[in-house]
Structures are given as C-alpha cells and as structure tokens.
Amino acid sequence: MTNSKRENCADILCIGAQKASTSWLHHVLNAHPATYSFPNSEPITSTTKEAHFWDWNHERGTDWYRSLLTPPEPERLSMDFTPEYSLMSDKQIAECKQLNPTARVIYVLRDPLARAISALRMHTLWKSDGKDAEQVEITFDEKFLKLTQQARIFDMSSYVANYRRWAKYYDDILVMNYEDIVAEPDASMRRVYEHCGLDVDTMPEEARADFDARMQKRVWASVPYSVNPQVSFFLHGLLWPKREAAESIFKMRFQEYRDVLGSEV
Q: How far apart are CA 125 and CA 116, in angstroms?
C-alpha cells in the first residue's frame, strides 16, 4: 500500500555521474534519521541505492516505484541515487517531474578521463568475473572500443547536455565537482545536507556519531586494472570537448587527468 499524502516518490534524486562518489554520498546522507533508503531488492534494484526505474524497471509501473520508495514514516526523505538517470530523455525527465515534483536533485561531475577509466575498470570487473588486478589489462583494441560503447562513456561525459535536459524541469540542481568532495569532504557534505533541507549540527548524538564514521569510509573502489597508455590518450582526446564545455559552463576545473596521464602532460 502506498501513502497518497506524500508529494514525491523520491525526495532526493542523485543523477550521477557514475564513478563520481555517489555511493559515498548516499551512504553519508543516509546517516541522517530523516532520510530513507528503500529495501535491497537486487537484482531488481542495485542495493538500497539505485532504483533504476527508468532504465530497468519502467514496465513495473509507477505504483511499483512509489511503493518501493515510500518510507514507513511518510515524513522521511526517500532517496534514489541512480547515476544512469543523467542519460534520461526529455520525456522520461518530464515523467520524473510528475512523480517527484519537488525533489532535490544532485549531479556530481568528475574529470571525464578519470571517470571514464574508473567506469571501464568497473565494467571490466563485471565482464571478467571478478579477476584480480594483475590478471587483466585494458588495451586499445576492438574489445575496448566495444566496451566504451556499452558503458556509454561518451554520453556519461556529456555533462552539459545532460544537465540542460534536467534543468528544463528542475531549476535548483546542485552541481558538484568530485575533486572538491575529495579535497573537502566535510564542507561538501554540508552543502548536500543543506540542499536537502537537512542540518548536520542538529542531528541526534548517535546519528552524528554514525555520520562521522561514515565520512571516513570508502564505499566502492574499482579494481585498479592496468590501462594501456593508448587507451588513456584516446579517451583524453575523445572527451576533451566535454571537459572544456563543463569547465566553461559550471566554472569548475578538472585536474585528475594529470594523474592519469602522468609525466606525458
């Protein structure tokens, strides 16, 4: 049974980017007792974090989505952190707006090259049945080119286009730089809490202790498969226009590519 008094299915939406600390954000945000994570329904959902309604589960219907995200206490803020939502079409986002009219939307951007390599490592892990780092190298070949398409590397890096589609329907999207989260996690998390109408400093003592513990925990790390330099430089060139566009529009700078390319830049 769903609660008809709730305005939104999801009160907090994080639309990406994939491999940009969204799991950590979800984990720390969920320390607040006013937030709610839906039950783990794998493989229908991805853990308690990603409902994947518009890409995996749309045929289940909006009643299913609302039921999944409805908390036992209607006043709690329900969360759906599905990075693939950044790729949604105008039609899908319009439906999202109908279901979540006042949702707070978060979009975390990451250096396109660093994000792409992290994503490729994740997809390689899945395709290799969890092989160890020393057993696999990502090389520049047909398999790599196919993987970039399957992982939608180019689309996932189209930050400006993705943002503009969403901004037609949500005019207060919190856009963050992954590098700021890494450099200043406390200040970054406070921005997220404030955006969601929450306050770190007024949390109950036990919840605040949980928050502090979660702040120190890394939630997901890609297996560090070796990446051939040809792969890195190909991706760097491919995604350079995406980098320039995002840096210009969002007034931020991405520096991770220097670590990826090393002394070659």
A: 14
Q: What residues make up the domain containing 225?
A: 12-264
Give the mean pLDDT of 103-111.
Answer: 99
Containing 12, the helix (H) or strand (E) segment is: strand 12-14
Q: pLDDT tens digit string along 1-48?
A: 445 579 999 999 999 999 999 999 999 999 999 999 999 999 999 999
Rounded to whole angstroms, how far apart are CA atoms 264 and 258? Answer: 8
Q: What is the DSSP letter of 39?
A: P
Structural domain total, the chain: 1
Within-domain flag for 211: yes
Ramachandran bin of 130, using left for φ above 0, alpha for ψ from -120 to 50, beta for the remaining angles: left
Query: Is residue 83 included in any domain, yes or no?
Result: yes
106 is a domain residue: yes
Q: What is the CATH number of the domain that holds 255?
A: 3.40.50.300
Q: Do the Cβ atoms of 167 and 93 come closer than 8 Å?
A: no
**What residues contact 135, with CB distance under 8 A and at least 6 apart?**
128
* Domain-embedded: residue 6: no
| Residue 105 dihedral angles phi and psi, to the nearest 5° | -110, 135
Tokens standing for residue 160: 């400006």
pLDDT bucket at 222, cuts 50 / 70 / 90: confident
Peptide bond into 17 cis (omega under 30): yes
pLDDT at 161 over 60: yes
Q: Which amino acid is at 188?
A: S
